[in-house]
Amino acid sequence: MSLKLRLILIINAVLLLILVLGSILAIDMAKKNVRAEVASSEKLTLYLFEIGVIKNPKYYSIESEYKPLNLQTLVHMRHLKIEFYNLEGKLIESNISDTRTQTMDQAPPWFVNFMGLISDPWQPKRLPVEILGEPKGTIIITPDPSYEFGEIWNQLTGIFYLAGTFFILTNILVAWIVFRALSPVEFILQALTQLELGNLKVKMPDLKTPELSVISSKFNHMVKTLRLSVEQNHKLSQKLIHLQEEEKKSLARDLHDEFGQSLTAIHADAAVLKNLATKEYPKIKPSAHAISDLSKHLMNLVAGMLNQLKLGVLNELGLEEGLIDLIRSWKLRHPKIRLDYQVDLKGLPRITETLSITTYRIIQECLTNISRHAKAKHVDIKIQFFKKNVSSKMIDIHVQDDGVGFKKSHRDGFGLSGMRERIHEVNGSIKIKSEVHRGVILGIQLPLKRIPK
Fold first, then answer.
1. Listing from the earlier edge strand, what are the strands of the sheet with 125-131?
2. Where are the beta strands (DSSP E) in 112-162?
3. Is 381 helix (H, G, I), strand (E, B) or coil?
4. Residue 440, number of CB atoms within 10 A of its CB
5. Is 362:423 a contact under the CB 8 Å cutoff?
């Protein structure tokens, strides 16, 4: 859930809580007011009946046995239901009329029932009627708060309509304020996303809010520092790669000049010993052959090391044949791994030595990583010269294995970091897709730069 939505929901929850508490207080106060008003009307009515009917019976003329009182004149007593019952318990007259029921503001039945549940029960008052000392019946006065409940309902309805309007307008205002206040967060998230994707040129705009303005300034300073640090690391890495190549060339020269010449001399001496043993010293013949074979094996081994160190194979065979030779040699050393490869660099123009060495070292590093870490059973390599248009030419490399793979949170080792630096040096790109136990897929593109002949 977004921060904006959470803030709006929290504010709505507070508003609803206030509304509920206000409603409870309003209903409680209304309940008390109803009881006070009805009780007051009840006392007044009882007093009037006692004065008028009991203590001053001459005020009422008995025109009929069934209508000793004219209760219809008390229809305005809306809080009370006044009924007169004769001595047989028959209802003779009441102040309730159909007209009063129709004109009275009615609350919904559920509201009336609810108010009845939370209110104390009303007890009717009985007033015996005697006229000229003769019992005529009983007046029963029952509190009737229905009219008051109707008034309360109308008041609460008005309040709820007003509260609903206030609620809607408040939500609109709060949403506008929240979205306006948090809109700079979108810039921060976008900038962080770009930074995560490796865009070190991202810059956050100046934000108006003082606190966010400080964040913007600090972020831009951090990105600038990080960019300088990455650039310095790239330069150091490039220097390290060049130093490694120079060291390999130096080591290749030493192997060729010192170790290679020594092995050649040993092999020549072994040949002399073989001839001498054949003619004069037959007992040393096995040792002479062993020395000769061992020196020859060492010479072949040194020759292979020289090719890897000095990359003379690229000068002798070219990039395409050099890559094929590298892949075939690795395949012979790892016969248990099925290796399918396709190297097609037909039409490849003359390229820089750096690009040629980078392509060779990338494949070499991929094969080394597969043999050391992947535990793969099948490897597929495709190296092609790709030409989009006249100005867009590249060497496309695809390497896939079915090994153990690695998680997204995996940190690059020295070999993969070196590969990335080599690719970065020639302005290339690399995409790595991997899942645990599902192998690794590498997609590498190295743009070409023609060099003058």
1. 91-94, 80-85, 134-143, 125-131
2. 125-131, 134-143
3. strand
4. 23
5. yes
Q: What is the pLDDT of residues 108-144, one digit of tens each?
A: 777 777 776 777 677 777 878 776 667 777 878 777 7
Tokens of 319: 């990039």
> Residues 19-35: pLDDT tens digits?
888 778 877 777 777 77
The angle that helices 285-310 and 210-254 make with each other, rounded to 10 degrees, is 150
Choose the weakest-confidence range: 46-60, 174-188, 438-452: 46-60
Distance separating alpha carbons of residues 403 and 369, to the nearest angstrom: 11
Helix, strand, coil percent values for the chain (each to nearest 5)? 60, 15, 25
**DSSP letter at 73?**
G
CB atoms within 10 A of CB 289: 14
Nearest to 329 by CA among 346, 345, 317: 317
C-alpha distances (whole Å) from 26 to each of 23, 113, 167, 196, 246 are 5, 17, 18, 56, 90
pTM of the full structure: 0.48
Rounded to whole angstroms, how far apart are CA atoms 287 and 347? 53
What does the alpha-carbon distance between residue 344 and residue 320 come to, in Å, rounded to a whole number? Answer: 7
Nearest residue to 361 via CA among 314, 403, 401, 301: 314
Residue 373 in this model has a pLDDT that exceeds 80: yes
Instruction: Name the DSSP letter for residue 105.
Output: P
